[in-house]
Amino acid sequence: MKRASFLLAILLLARSTAAAAQEDPCAFDGDLDSYLEDLTARLSGQAPIELPKEATELALASRANSDGLSGGRLDLLRRAFVALDLGAVEEEEGKLVFNFNPAMLKLNSLGHFSPRVIVHEPVLFAAVGEHIDADDTVPEVERTARKEALTKGLQDFDDTELHVRWTNEGDTPEAGVELANRTFTEVYATAGRAVAQDIANEAAAFNAALSDLLKTDDAGAVSIETICGEDAGEALLKELTASLELQVPKLIDDLREQLSASAFFDIADLIDGQPRWTAESSYRLREGAAGPSEWSLNARFDIGPISINGFEKWAREYKKQGDSQGLREYLEESKLRHFLPNFSLTAKYTKTSDFEIAIPGADPFTQPDAHALSSTLNAGCYFGGGRDRRLELEATYDDVSDDPNRQDRFVSTLSWVETLDAELAKLAGGSELVVSFIWANKPEFRGEVDEDFGLRAGLKWSLGPKPGAGN
Amino acid sequence: MAKKLKLIKKMAAITAPSTLEMKVTKTAGPVSTAAEVGSTGSDDRSFTDSQLTPGPATMPLNPANSYAIAWTGAFVKAGTATLNVRVLRADGTVKEKKPVRVQGKAKEVFFRLVLVP
To answer: What pTM did the predictor assign?
Structure first.
């Protein structure tokens, strides 16, 4: 027994020594500001992030010497947009997105608007390319030349899209933000402020001592190598590091525990349950060989059993406070809280215009106009206690005029989603087990299943990550 | 006389108090934060989220003291929060600026430390 204890002590000592060696602050490559950011991020269980360059810098550091989206007129437009502070410009693969500043619109009473203009890099319409390639009576060299001739005729603004998104609430409702801030301020005053103030004072003393030692007025800009080059500097740094490693994790744990107890994190369910209308409309104007123009309208409604509106109404009705105490009572009283059923209804309509383009040395390519209508009902709830088990229903109706596989098509899927624990997930090769019952109005729409229940229905199972896990 | 005035101006520039300015900007969330400014003197200050967002929250800096900021926050839902720290000279020009950004998931609590130059 004594020998086992002795060996265990040696093992623990070796581990802690190894750990201390790994955390040697003097091994950090960078300045003091970066070191402190890295250290506190690590103690908070996060990775530090590098701030991106200002949008202006990115926009102006264009690929002036390469092909693509940095043509003369486009570059001029981009610079003017940024210079006039109309919003932000983002460059994504194959497109330039001009996000207008919604605050400019000042339409708060009508909801939240997010307008943007997307300039796509114009490319030869895929159907035209396929049509040319399908003609095997023509040599490949000639087919390539025809496609190149059409592509050369494309200009900067031949594929431009205007997109507007509107919600009645915004994705982060103001009332939810206010409730979160009130609750956090209340909890932080007792569970975090005193410790944070002590740490700030200790860091201020460290700042003073280091600035005196190194004769600088910005100790944060000094490299760790320089600081550790002085014995006194190294000692100060190690002392502060040790203090932070002791105090910060405890501060974070205490604050998290108190915030959980005050229902702060449950505000997420109230936000998700908030009745919300969302509408998106887009018009994509294409010219020349870029293809047909297209417009679409998409509307969606979401609602859940508990919401910010529900909490405020309950507080008024029962004359309760809108603070964390009131929030806890509201959640306890909500019978559906543990099930959290939610519903959403989506409808989408797309109209594509007819299209005709002359092809050098061949008959013109034509494509008639088309429309597509789609609507989806989603509903889901947790069951069995906790958030590990969920029932989800999805029912979709499609009618696409130019796609025989999607005309008058109705498919419904009822799924049982079981979240696996870490060990089981590792064994099974996926974090979720999904078993779905599928029914379609026509046999050809049912799709592949693992177990048949007639021509129109079937059972399917799969293992995978949580939906939206990559978002 | 001109020499004396020049000297007075120089002294004023060295000893004139500067101002600490803090602003928090956020995306998605909600995320709530608070900041404590620690000092080697007796002018510690606390700032709540409503003072920091959109801000600016300001306080005078005594040139005889040193300062540091402890910034704490929690995420209800995923998002980002950025603390923009600026030190302004007496004439309003920017002496130094330091941004710190945190990206968090739902239920994450964070702590960051910033030394004030």
So the answer is: 0.70
